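Why do we care about 3D structure at all? Because function follows from shape, and shape follows, mostly, from sequence. That is the central idea of this module. The next example makes it concrete: a single protein chain, its amino acid sequence, and then its structure expressed as tokens.
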Amino acid sequence: MGFTIDCLGASREVGRSAFLVKTDKKIMLDYGIKIFDPTGKPKFPLEHTKPDMVVISHAHLDHSGCVPSLYRNMKVRWHAPPPTKDICEVLWKDSMKIMGDGLPYRRSHFNKALKYWTPMQYNKPIKTGNTRVELYDAGHICGAAMIDLRYKGKRLLYSGDFKGEETFMHKGARPVEDADVLVMETTYALKDHPPRKETETKLMQEIYETIDNGGNALLPSFALGRTQELIALIRSYDPEIPVFVDGMGRELTRIYLKHPKYIKDPKAFRKAVRSVNIVESIADKKRASNTPCAIIAGAGMMNGGTILNYLFHANSQSKVIFTGYCIEGTNGWLLQNKGYIMQDDQELHVDLPVEYLDLSAHAGRKDIMKFIETANPEKIVLVHGDQPKKFAEELKEEGYDAVAPLPGERIETG
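And the structure:
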């Protein structure tokens, strides 16, 4: 007997990752929401039976954001490394503040969820029934994990979101040998990222040029992961240029510092954080706007957040530098492609230069292929991507049994 996988989300889409894996137990891998949906409303995982346990790969909302809804009518433990729990608490609170009644849970469910958390560490397996569960460092964000299930001599590996290449914050995920079933993210399965060193050098050139011209180098950044990477990156290249950090990234940076064993070089990162200006007041915001400097602030896709305040106050020598992907229709996408953002249902044209530099925290095609070749699985389930079907066809030509399931599809493995 192998594994049965119910695909409750992230199937031919990015968002609402949720996979119910059945062995002698029912194990939920991730339970997220899809915030940016063409309908304009968030989407949640499909209906399912009660799991015996929940394991969360990492704290990003598309993987964790629906966990509190389980506690409307269930009592089930959810497992994750300590930083994931701390980050989830921040992100879930923020979701309730922003989305309110649009979420399928309330404050009481949020509070209950926190009580039902059980800590897990990397490389320290636990058992539920006859199923062994182990986590490995995914190299994606602080606390991110790949999830390894073993049952009756068979092995299923769920990649979650992973990054094989080393970054300033993380060592990178190691490929895993001999998985029978591989449930694999495909965010960038059809393209490779440019060489990291070239991108870093280009970023620093853009920042230097902007500061030398007397402007703000505006860096719209995801509060989780990208903010911390940019702090470490900039300080690695230059310990002295003025850097200001604003938005939710401040609080999440403190969580990173609280969990040093989950980052690559905690001593260097602590030193980097001490050397930047953490914005705590209106006076700090004014000082940042009036200083030629780099400003790291959310939101990464510019749909709200403190970055908009800096954009509105930026002088003509300033520049907007994106380092992360922006979903079509978001302000970040509009600014890059149309030259304007939407504010209060009005088009606001932005007369500043805009750059995009790829510092993705996801594996590119080369890392994904290396991962597949090392695992050499009997079956590959391709998820968390916009074109997994195309990638599945490519893998079939290479001799792999690869599928790109639809939402609600059940996959039986031998």
